[in-house]
Design brief:
single chain; alpha+beta; three-stranded antiparallel beta sheet; 2 helices; 25% helix; ligase; ligase activity; DUF7882; ATP-dependent DNA ligase
């Protein structure tokens, strides 16, 4: 179970695999100087609701992984999360799509 530390005031647990995909999407947006909302469903242990934070390039983030190896990345999931991050409601954790075999065509790349 990995952890996302936000502005030294909030710590959120995510599975290492989820966190690795989020790090790529969040990093790409912040590198471009984009600010956006990030929402997730809370664990029942902390109230079973939803939480949202505002991510901006000037707000410190820290990613801490439980495992020592980088999880395998699913390019299709990164694309789906990126699309979510560009919506009016901001980044939300969408279900992971089945990964296409290497070399398979990607519909949104023309």
């Amino acid at each position: 179970m990995g952890k996302l530390f936000y502005d030294s005031t909030l710590t959120v647990d995510f599975d290492d695999r989820v966190l690795a995909h989020l790090q790529i999407v969040i990093g790409a947006k912040l590198r471009r100087g984009e600010s956006f909302y990030f929402s997730w469903k809370d664990d029942p242990a902390v109230g079973d609701g939803r939480s949202t934070i505002w991510l901006a390039p000037n707000i410190p983030l820290h990613y801490k992984y439980f495992g020592s190896r980088l999880p395998a990345l699913n390019r299709d999931w990164i694309l789906a999360l990126s699309a979510s991050s560009n919506s009016a409601s901001g980044l939300q954790i969408v279900p992971e799509p089945q990964q296409r075999p290497a070399g398979a065509a990607v519909d949104d790349e023309s």
